[in-house]
Design brief:
The chain has one domain: Jelly Rolls (Sandwich), CATH 2.60.120. The protein is globular. The protein contains four helices and ten strands. This is Acireductone dioxygenase.
């Protein structure tokens, strides 16, 4: 089961858990109200998994690739990690399926507070278009993830503030409806 919690305000190493004190865990229902979807799958059979294929078909995830984020596998590793950790949004969903290793997705709640979502092997997440978020590795410094898209991938990240974008406006309206 996915682990998620409100973060502390520390500017310490982002690869640490950063759990708020006292602890404030976040459940799947609270993530769903933010538009964040989660599945637990068998990453060892990702190449022939009927459950993954069913999700891909239902959600029209037609494009896929695999990225490995580690010092020895990703060109410009330090620069890319800094870029992934900058707060941003996309105008399309962001879908990630962890095949090996682990890391954190941080998302903003309706009150603009950070929620940290720990992702490990078998976890698949969909972040809605328009949600402010960021990603970092944990202290193991390694993750292998499947990236899925509806149609051709669009890699554009819009740094905050990006409230003028239609995707952000639609997301804010979605939050108001789920409140």
């Amino acid at each position: 089961m996915v682990q998620a919690w409100y973060m502390d305000e520390s500017a310490d190493d982002p690869r640490r858990p950063h759990r708020a004190e006292p602890s404030r865990p976040v459940g799947l229902e609270q993530l769903r109200r933010l538009g964040v979807l989660y599945w637990k799958l068998d990453a060892d059979k990702h190449e022939n998994d009927p459950e993954l294929e069913k999700i891909r078909k239902e959600r029209n995830y037609s494009w896929m690739d695999i990225i490995t984020i580690s010092k020895d596998k990703l060109p410009n590793y330090e620069e890319k990690l800094r870029m992934f950790y900058e707060e941003h949004l996309h105008v399309d969903e962001e879908i990630r399926y962890i095949l090996d290793g682990s890391g954190y997705f941080d998302v903003r709640d309706k009150d603009d507070k950070w929620i940290r979502i720990f992702m490990e092997k078998g976890d698949m997440i969909t972040l809605p278009a328009g949600i402010y978020h960021r990603f970092t590795l944990d202290e193991k410094n390694y993750v292998k993830a499947m990236r899925l898209f509806v149609g051709q991938p669009v890699w554009t990240a819009y740094g905050r503030p990006a409230d003028h974008l239609d995707a952000r406006g639609q997301y804010v309206r979605f939050l108001a409806q789920t409140a």
